[in-house]
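Researcher: Last one for today. Full complex below.
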Amino acid sequence: MRRHVVRGLCGLALLAGLGFVALRARPPALPTRSVRTIHLEPRTGRAELLGDGASTKLRAAVVDVPSVLSWPVDVPRGAKLETYFSFARGGPEDLQSLSCRARVEAGEGDGGTVLLEREVRPGPGWEAFEVDLSQQAGRSVVLRLDLACPGAPRVFPNAARWSVPLLSTPRTEGERNVLLVSIDTLRADHLSAYGYPRATSPQVDALSRRGLLFDRAETVQSATWPALTSLHTSLYPSAHGVVENGQPMPEGLPTLAELLRSQGFSTSAFITNMTRGRHPGFSRLFLSREGGQAAADRAAVEQAVAQLERERERRFFMWVHLLSPHADYAPPAPYDAAFTQPGASSLHGGLEELAALRRRGAAISESDLAHVIGLYDGEVAFADELVGLLLSALVRNGLEKSTIVVLTADHGEDLHEHNRYFFHSPSVYRSSMSIPLILAVPGVLPEGGRTSHPASLVDVAPTILGVLGLPVPSSLQGHNLLPGGSLPPRPVRQMAFGETNGRIFTVRSPEWRFVYNPERVQPAAPGGVYPIAEAELYDEERDPREALNLASSRPGLVRAFTAEAVAFRSRIRRKGGLVPGPDAEAVEELRALGYLQH
Ligand SMILES: [Zn+2]
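Model: Here's the assembly. Have a good evening.
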């Protein structure tokens, strides 16, 4: 009976993972032993990510005042309950003056025990309710969240929210957590771990010394929303449909967070770009752009560090996405002066300033270029410091040995190698397509490993699932880079593929980069059009800056890579047509980042 109830609750959690509903006739039965966090989904209606007036959204159910939510639960040993309460913002005035109380109760039959009671008042912020259920361990109870305002003249519909309660038992030996860190606009070759001569990344270097570094990893598109959607869905942009920034992720696609939540992980995300996107699967979402890029990134990391303390005993999946080193290149002190000379240039590293230079056709001097690159490197070093805060929080909370850490980027950055360009989208070149990928699996992967096998951003999710010993859905388009836990890693792909808006394609083999632009699209970009030839071919060994297009002198290779690109295009076309464009708030965010021209 007890097992049956636990499975039933898992089924509810799975049903909330929309991808499973759409893609599987029946969710797979989960082994009870792997269920470490049970998500008590609302029994009527659907939980959704709701904000608190500040920067944190929680998966929550909207309730009336007064109201009672309840779940029958067989309480596992060591279980703790965590939920959060808030009144809806801008609620009715006659609610403001009332005295209300919120309770967590455990009942058997008609009787009940109040486990925690608090007075609650309208106002911003989520109020935490954390309850130790050791007294109820091994018993079948009905857990109730009871909200009442004695003397209230009426019912206030939809006036409050409870976050989906997490019923967690301690992680056991051998069960691993996942910390996924993605850094916006981070070029692999500007990390010292990837051979950059400047010491931009002592923290990432330290991570690479205890992990496996993929030195030929590629993104799928040099644009944030398409790339991050691919990171989480393991689908190429033309398959998931988000081919431009601002397009919302379609419903019904399974995401890494949903897959892990259904397996009993607590899921949280702390992000400072793509904050207007849909992020299914996460129970807690901190999103901020307040105070500028550096301040928002620091705030996100502080929140993530605080969350790691809450996750000390639970099994968790945490995603942190930092906006630095995205333009403007304006790192905070001391990084603003770490790689620049005072007075060496009048440029400030602003996107508008650099785009204006390009628009005017103005050449940039060697010293100005070195200065701008120095500012970009300062941003990298700042992001690296923040990565260090996350890694040391793992150590401080005793999570270092039980947590898989994956570090990657959504795309790189052109730093004037092509078309006098400082930015990423719509670049198809190594500067913007090559990304770092480091995977640390304590006790499993050898420390300090390095592989040159091609890897793609779409491979991250299946590799995480594979390392955790979880099934990889066949609908995913990426590969597990360590199939069967194979070490040293075998090459699982010969090439990495990319695309731009489903119209321009890249193929990266160990030796070559091929760009295929059959429609001769000339994309718009900050500072003017970004020219891309119909076919471009670069020798990656001899010409890493991709300065010499060999397409006309190697027709055989061009034919072979064209066939690969065409086959790739036909594999990934989205069934079901285009997804909608950005909403008004997303447009505002994109404009602030320079993605849209004024
Ligand atoms: Zn980005």
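Residues 184-185, 224, 273, 410-411 surround zinc ion (CB under 6 Å). Confidence is low (pLDDT under 50) at residues 1-34.
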